[in-house]
Specification:
313 residues, single chain, disordered C terminus, alpha+beta
Amino acid sequence: MPSSSLLMLLIPTLGLLLLLGSVAAAGGAFDGNFYKNFEIVWGDGRARVLNHGKVLTLSLDQDSGSSIRSKNEYLFGRFDMQIKLVPGNSAGTVTSFYLSSLGSNHDEVDFEFLGNLSGDPYTLHTNIFTNGGGGREQQFQLWFDPTADFHTYSIIWTPNSIILSVDETPIREFRNLEKGGVPYANNQPMRLYASLWNAEYWATRGGEVRTNWTYAPFTASYRKFEVDACVWSSGKSSCKSNSTSFGSTSSDGDGAGDFLYTEESDFFVQESIKWVHTHYMIYNYCTDLKKYPQGIPYECFVAQSRNNGVVSS
């Protein structure tokens, strides 16, 4: 087994490469065009597509925030977005990148960046909803300044698991545990969303710090989204339903990336997650006994077993 110091060097560069294979080599990854692949949901001019569709800015002022969503729906795939967050005093704001289906029993996978007072670190808030049920919050403080430059945030959604990563470093996994009675997101197609909105009642220090509107408008920037996924259209998927290492079609109709999962890739993913949780996690619903006085959810026991080197499913 590699030493822990060597693992820390290998995890960010090898973990997802082993997990997914080379999507670029398969031709499925592309630098997306926001004009072509997204539509504005709300914002009244506060969502702006620039540089011939290559850059998106979302803005928030005291009257409104802004949001976009993908024109296509997807059922499984990899979704990457480069984001540069609101700089300076961003308290009360939430910048998001997420997948979601529609309806009260919706599925959803969230990256939400909670604004801060100038000089304080951003909080990365993640959550996963399945069949309308959420409450699976995990929060992290990032190991870099997310306002100084663009960084890549990824959702890898397969029939077996959902993995969230930051700059190719896996930070969270939610496995398909339907056999254990835990609902999983494998039936409802989801769209890709991005938004910037006011959540001062809860976002910064639990709502203690409200938005200072003298700093408005607040602006976040997005670029280089890449989608290698199964497009859902007319009740059918573009991917072969009987394939476990399945091909995928990107949102512009090109490409065929394969999603690979091996024991070697799983090892690096789990080591990465353990490292991030040890050094950068600030909240985990799996350890919140006030929230779950009768005992933590089943998926938490499975995750703990995997982190301790016990294979469980």
